[in-house]
Prior knowledge:
Layout: H1 4-20, E1 31-33, E2 39-41, H2 43-51, H3 55-67, H4 69-73, E3 80-85, E4 89-94, H5 96-108, E5 122-126, H6 138-156, E6 160-164, H7 173-184, H8 186-194, H9 198-211, H10 213-227, H11 231-255, H12 267-270, H13 274-283, E7 287-290, E8 293-296, E9 311-314, H14 322-336, E10 341-347, H15 351-364, E11 372-378, E12 381-382, E13 391-392, E14 395-396, H16 399-413, H17 421-441, E15 449-450, H18 453-456, H19 464-481, H20 497-506, H21 509-519, H22 522-542, H23 552-576
Parallel strand pairs: 5-6, 5-10, 10-11, 12-15
Antiparallel strand pairs: 1-2, 2-4, 3-4, 7-8, 8-9, 13-14
The structure holds arginine (ARG).
Amino acid sequence: MTDPQLELTGRVQQALADAFGTEYADADPLIRPSQFADYQANVAMSLSKRLRRAPREVAQEIADRLTGPAAQATDDPFPGTVEVSGPGFLNLTLSDTWIAEQASEVLADPRAGVGLITPPQTVVVDYSAPNAAKEMHVGHLRTTIVGDALARVHEHLGNKVVRQNHLGDWGTPFGMLIEHLLDIGEEAAVAQLEAGEGNAYYQTARAKFDADPAFNARARARVVTLQAEEPETMRLWHIFMDATLRYFNKVYRQLEVTLTDEDIAGESMYNPMLARVCDELQERGIAVLSDGALCVFPPGYTGREDQPLPFMIRKSDGAYGYATTDMATIRYRVDDLKADRILYVIGATQALHMSMLFDSARLAGWLPEHVRAEHVQIGSVLGSDGKMFKTRSGKSIKLLELLDEAETRAGEVIKDRDYDDTERARIAHAVGMGAVKYADLSVSHDSEYVFDFDRMLALTGNTGPYLQYAQARIRSIFRRGGVSPAEATGPIALGHPAERALALQLLRFGSVVEEMAEHSAPHKLASYLFDTASAFTTFFENCPVLRDDVDAAVRASRLALCALTLRILETGLTLLGVPVPERM
Ligand code: ARG
């Protein structure tokens, strides 16, 4: 089975090579969906200059190669029709038989047309990474949701995925956090942290640090014993971290995110490697001392007055920082995890840091040419006031409360449905989480958007609940018909234009999934699923499936289209991490 666009690309490239010579075999045929046919190829226009011939003439020559008598005489004739139009467009229309055949193959394929990447790659996905010293906020929510979708899609394509939750769990603030824990007692501290009040905890500790000299001195001394990994300090640090993690895990479980404790590789893990990172870079002259600080100066970065911009890996007081740890992440991921590709799913505001990091690591030879490292930039989530969505009426929004509110509001959406309480709660959970997650995924990851419950929970438009509802509705067709989707094996035959359009759409699933993985772009899969659900709606409005007067063969074909649509919506939503409720 083939994606229609790939099929046509291959055919047109072959025609180009036959007509104008093999040097044209790699030219991009510029195949695009068209209003007048299934697709159009715009290559004749772009080639006409190079060939010094009129575009229409070039187009005609390609058309002849595609469907002329010689082409039709081969054992693999063009599966459709070609027409030259306008200044030199090629309008390409696929035959119903070809589409139906391909759709039947996708239907029979347990992977619904999604291939496996061979050989599999090792893809490291760095995502979520909240800071233990502060509350996890909506920004972390989005990196968590987008990162999880990317991890899921790579796994589905057969790649080996290593999830890395780069927790902010180390550094000087932990001196005062541990001292505060001693002040208020372990039990009270644990209760507060488990409840997700890390921010308040931090602020109280900070206030004491600033106002109380004795506390300040204790906190500083604690940083020293923490750096030395002194056992009692480590015990207290673990109490703090374990309680904090229990809160993060509550958020992950509620969101149905696949991160587990196994995936934790926080800043503390890299602590023992930092001295060597600095020494080696200094010995090799990659990093140099500048006003006492150890810095790499990757070429091409300038700051004020055109001064070269430092990537500082050790401050003048000897302290390591975020950049040091991140240099260590690259080494570990390349050398120990054997990454072929590393995705850093992190806020767009860190673009400069990430870019200097990659360049510094390339300079050091720690990030070899064959390893792809990418900053998947996450755009900010804004409140209705257009500012960062962090606070409401002055106080910061607790993530778990936000998620609970999503579920409560989702309950409203389904309030007139006839379900018992357990079922209702289950659906409200799925719809609430689906709405929040889909809102993060359906716009491109680097753009900002406004957090708006009403919009994300709408049952119409490009929303999670719309897609959840679309698949639930197909399930109900099967329930009413008394057949299971697995029994709907076709064969698929196409009569009505809406059947044809739906089938053509279903053929593209595999290549869209690959595209999402290649470009780290969940929104491409999201908009594909939305288009698929829309094509299904048109089909369902025009083509009765269960009605008595529908001929048995037509009914079998239509049920098969329903089954394949359901499978693709279900698989696609699952790859995005959007829950799939049975009913809605
Ligand atoms: N903890 C950081 C933050 O909250 C994100 C860490 C991302 N990962 C990394 N390797 N830098 O901004």
